[in-house]
Amino acid sequence: MTQPEHNPAEEQPSKSQLKREMHELQALGEQFIAMKPEERDRFPLSDEFKRAIEETDRIRAREARRRHMQYVGKLIRKEDLEGIQAVFDAIEQTKEQRDHAFHRLEKWRDRLLEEGDDAVQAFIAEYPHVDIQALRQLVRNTVRERQQQKPPTNAKRLFKLMRETAGL
Q1: I want to staple 154 with a disulfide (CB 3.0 to 4.6 A). Which of 66, 111, 126, 141 is the partner?
Q2: Rounded to two decimals, what is the model's pTM?
Q3: What is the dihedral of CA 91, 97, 103, 105, to 10 degrees?
């Protein structure tokens, strides 16, 4: 039984694959360009790459910008892509946690408006530092507002109070 021949060409990525990877890196560079400087500072980027990103803003000519984006794509290959991905993952995780907490507060709001005083007591038990008087008043006003089909002014105030209480 003979083993299949080892062909080194099969191990190398195709020209199309290399081109796709280059375009992905350019797209990543465009994400950095779209970010505010303080957002970019969270990432482990070299000074050379940061300068190239900042320089992009002053390039207006279409062809010059295209060439500069290729340069940015070339520079990003030298960056710590794993470190960059780790920061993106952390940002995404934080966003998911914030979204989860936000949805949890929406459920609390609905419960407060449907169940009344029992839910208010449960909310106070979970968030003892809430302004109890303001919470009760806003719940009453929001229920009245809904019954009279008025704009949700108090509902917005209630949710704002809940967000501030939960630290969101």
Answers
A1: 141
A2: 0.56
A3: -120
Angle between helices 62-76 and 15-34 in degrees, nearest 10: 100
Q: Mention every residue, 6+ apart, whose C-beta is less than 8 A from residue 109.
A: 155, 158, 159, 162
Q: What are phi and psi of 167, to 5 degrees?
A: 80, 30
In 74-109, which positions are buried (b, 16+ CB within 10 angstroms) versus exposed (e)? ebbeebeeeebeeeeeeeeeeeeeeeeeeeebeebb
DSSP state of 8: G
* Residues contacting 78, CB < 8 A, separation 6+: 46, 49
For the record, the structure tokens of 69 come out as 């984006």
DSSP 8-state secondary structure symbol assigned to residue 129: T
Q: Tens-digit pLDDT profile for the chain (168 aa)?
A: 555 555 555 678 788 888 888 788 888 888 888 888 888 888 888 889 889 888 888 888 999 988 988 888 888 888 888 888 888 888 889 899 989 989 999 998 888 888 888 888 898 888 888 888 998 999 899 989 888 888 888 889 999 999 998 877
Q: Are 68 and 52 in contact (CB under 8 A)?
A: yes
- Contacts for 21-25 with beta carbons within 8 Å, 24 or more apart? 22/73, 23/73, 25/73, 25/76, 25/77
